[in-house]
Amino acid sequence: MVPMLINIKSHAYRDDETDEPINLLTYGQLTQEGGRTVLEYDEVMDETMPAQHVMLTLENGSLTMIREGGYSTQMIFTQDCRYEGQYHTPFGAMDLALFCNRLKYDLTEAGGTIDLRYQLDINGQFAAVHELNLTAFPHNG
Fold first, then answer.
1. In whole angstroms, how large is the CA radius of gyration of the chain?
2. What is the residue-wise DSSP string for 106-138?
3. Domain count within the chain
4. Share of the chain above pLDDT 90, in %
5. Taking 70 as the threshold, does the pLDDT of residue 45 lie above it?
6. Which pick of 4, 40, 113, 118 has the fewest CB atoms within 10 Å?
7. Which domain holds residue 88?
8. Is the separation of the CB atoms in 9 and 23 below 8 Å?
9. How far apart are CA 77 and CA 44, in angstroms?
10. Model's pTM, two decimal places?
11. CA distance 31 to 1
């Protein structure tokens, strides 16, 4: 397990509008075994809510994201593929569907990046196009 400093930049686009970009700096752990890379970190998007544990697994050209906590979900991103699942919130579950139109990653114990773009639909309705750029650096602190 390698301690990592993780920088995440995220944007959501709806029609001709762009949401305020989200920038998150956090610490996590990277593990590699065989052809699988796992990056785990806690995400705090709002100080009024507890941290959400996130696990990203990169394997065979796909990215699986598992988010635990009050807003939990599993999403699988594969270039040019659709994924359907559920998003669990304190207010109930919602159906989600995503179509990944960009997934590039190069992430090892020496650090690296994930570049992701996907369309997200919630309960059958277009929600937004999301872009996520993650950069990870080894951290010995």
1. 15
2. EEETTEEEEEEEEEEEETTEEEEEEEEEEEEEE
3. 1
4. 78
5. no
6. 113
7. 2-138
8. yes
9. 22
10. 0.93
11. 5
12: domain CATH number is 2.40.128.20
Residues 6 or more apart whose Cβ sits within 8 Å of residue 34: none
Cα dihedral angle (85, 20, 71, 43), rounded to 10 degrees? 110
Q: What tokens were used for 89?
A: 């919130």
Extract the tokens encoding 16.
């001709």
Nearest to 107 by CA among 129, 81, 83, 133: 133
Pairing state of beta strands 52-59 and 17-18?
unpaired
- What's at 107, amino acid-wise? L
Model confidence over 14-36: pLDDT tens digits? 877 767 788 999 999 999 998 99
49-106 tens-digit pLDDT: 788 999 999 999 999 999 998 889 999 999 999 999 999 988 999 999 999 999 999 9
Q: Rounded to whole angstroms, how far apart are CA atoms 10 and 84?
A: 21
Structure tokens at 119: 């369309």
Q: What angle do CA 79, 65, 58 make, to 5 degrees?
A: 60
Residue 133 — very low, low, confident or very high, per pLDDT cuts 50/70/90? very high
